[in-house]
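Could you join me in thinking about how sequence relates to backbone shape in a protein? We need material for that, and I hope you will provide a protein of your own picking. Once you have written the record down, we can walk along the chain together:

…
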Amino acid sequence: MYVLGEKQILTVTRIEPVGAYLGDHYDSRAEDILLPNKWVPEGSDIGDKIEVFVYKDSEDRPIATTMEPALTVGGVAVLRAVDVTKIGAFLDWGLEKDLLLPFHEQSVRVRKGDECLVTLYIDKSERLCASMTKVYHQLSTDSPYKKDDQVNGFVYEVTDDHGVYVAVDDKYSARIAPQELRKAEVGQRVTARVARVLPDGKLDLTLQKKVAEQMVDDAGTVLAIIKSRGGRIPFTDKADPAQIMDVFSMSKNAFKRAVGRLLKEGEIEITDSGISLKG
């Protein structure tokens, strides 16, 4: 018996002018499925086993193909939208018939040309469809990464309270804290560092480098901004965190470390009224 949305090995039960019919060698009662001529391997005969993927054609009939789909049921992949219609977006997934991503399965409105991370599922009408909203539970939690590794990921969900959800390597479950990526958008690709690996295998990511490396970068940023403001800013490292974030786009702790480094290097001086370039 064939399984919709999966790769499987089936047996040639008969050959007709339209192609080879495949079925279960051990169950003669099972319904056979057509593998059209254009996909039948040359020299195929009754009893041969062929690996195929089963989906539905443009007339909603189950059909087999030897073409390689970008994903199977329960899998995840980044696919590109090749068209948008009144029922949803259609995605290129490597087969002749594009894959439907219904509007109600989109976490953000998808436009033609957009990339989106989706999973494959079977809807109530027994059709294969893509979903952006069902991705979270399909991502893997057994990544090979450890603390401080640099990783690349795809942003698939952005929330105000819980942060930015990222699929590392387009398949591993990860998250970036909301204060670190304030202007993230679904579909954005990011490079980050693993801050920690949670007990359940999910990854917490950070855009910050290791403290020592980050301090050097932050010190350079602070120095450049002070210079751009005429050599002085009217507050110190005791300022309100919101004011520091607004001017320097960094946390108060990072700002204090950067200021401390610049003081040690003799680049700045601190007075009661602010921070100035030295000399």
Observations:
- The longest strand covers residues 7-16.
